[in-house]
Design brief:
globular, Alpha-Beta Plaits, five-stranded antiparallel sheet, 7 strands, two-stranded antiparallel sheet, 106 residues, alpha+beta
């Protein structure tokens, strides 16, 4: 099963995804039997189009090579990572540097 979630993307991206996947909710696309080759080609198109469309795109699929059993790719927002801890599947982002998060002096 491949799932792609989009936010604030161009109509061209939505049209492309709608032509190869089922849109089950606004901006949420699924394909129960998409092969690895097709999934990679879809991601290549999305990667090529992303700089001109803005917004964000997240793709996830079953991946036995990953410890969590799930692959994850993203465009347009901070990188997210999957981690399994004590039987829980967690999603995390990198912590911003201290300089960026330090309070402003008055």
């Amino acid at each position: 099963m491949v799932v792609i979630v989009t936010r604030d993307v161009a109509e061209r991206v939505r049209g492309f995804l709608g032509s190869c996947m089922l849109e089950i909710a606004p901006g949420v696309y699924t394909a129960p039997r998409m092969t690895k080759g097709i999934r990679e080609r879809v991601w290549t198109v999305l990667t090529d189009w992303q700089p001109e469309t803005g917004g964000s795109i997240v793709m996830t699929w079953r991946d036995h090579a990953e410890p969590s059993g799930q692959g994850l790719l993203h465009l347009g927002e901070e990188p997210k990572f999957l981690h399994q801890h004590d039987g829980l599947h967690l999603v995390y982002r990198a912590v911003p540097s201290q300089a960026a998060s330090a309070p402003m002096a008055l």
